């Protein structure tokens, strides 16, 4: 059986159209999984190195922005000679539809994985329409 080797690379984010970055460092686009349930949508973002203190989730009008800051951890009295793993920040933006109840969005992070729960607005939930016989 032939072994299949898959290289995983971080994708560098492009500079947002609304301005320039103020930090001189790489910014990566985190990979995400988006799943839909009956009453909510769930976004899972892989952001290795972030924790609850280094990640921000903001909502401005219909734009949801995820930003995570990651700093290289070099032990004291050591000097970095080679780094094959790219260190940098993470950033990704999403445009939300009116289906999302913006007041009930929840975010958690564990082991560098950000989980966003986007509850559906009442108007967007599926409902059964009662049918009556016409007289």
Task: Give an overview in words.
With about 140 residues, the chain is mainly β. The chain has a domain of about 90 residues: Immunoglobulin-like (Sandwich), CATH 2.60.40. Helices cover about 0% and strands about 35% of the residues. The chain contains no helices and 9 strands. It has a 5-stranded mixed beta sheet with strand order 1-2-7-6-5, with no helix packed on it. Strands 3-4-9-8 form a 4-stranded antiparallel beta sheet, with no helix packed on it. A hairpin with a 2-residue loop joins strand 8 and strand 9. The relative contact order is 0.24.
Question: What's the SSE blueprint?
Answer:
Layout (H helix, E strand, L loop, with lengths): L10 E2 L14 E3 L2 E5 L3 E7 L8 E6 L2 E6 L20 E7 L10 E5 L2 E7 L16
Parallel strand pairs: 2-7
Antiparallel strand pairs: 1-2, 3-4, 4-9, 5-6, 6-7, 8-9
What is the name of the CATH architecture of one domain? Sandwich
- Order of adjacent strands in the largest pleated sheet: 1-2-7-6-5
Strand content: 35-45%
- The CATH C-level name of one domain is Mainly Beta
Measure the end-to-end span: 70 Å
The pLDDT mean sits at: 83
Short précis:
With 135 residues, this protein is mainly β.
List keywords for this structure.
Immunoglobulin-like, mainly beta, 9 strands, 5-stranded mixed β-sheet, 0% helix, 135 residues, 4-stranded antiparallel β-sheet
């Amino acid at each position: 059986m032939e072994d299949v080797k898959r290289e995983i690379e971080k994708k560098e984010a492009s500079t947002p159209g609304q301005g320039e970055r103020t930090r001189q460092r790489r910014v990566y686009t985190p990979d995400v999984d988006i799943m839909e349930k009956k009453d909510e949508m769930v976004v899972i973002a892989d952001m290795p190195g972030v924790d609850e203190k280094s990640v921000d989730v903001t909502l401005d009008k219909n734009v949801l922005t995820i930003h995570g800051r990651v700093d290289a951890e070099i032990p004291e009295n050591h000097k970095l000679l080679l780094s094959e793993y790219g260190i940098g920040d993470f950033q990704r933006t999403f445009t939300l539809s009116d289906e999302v109840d913006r007041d009930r969005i929840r975010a958690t992070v564990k082991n560098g994985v950000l989980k966003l729960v986007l509850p559906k607005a009442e108007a967007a939930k599926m409902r059964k329409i009662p049918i009556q016989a016409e007289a």
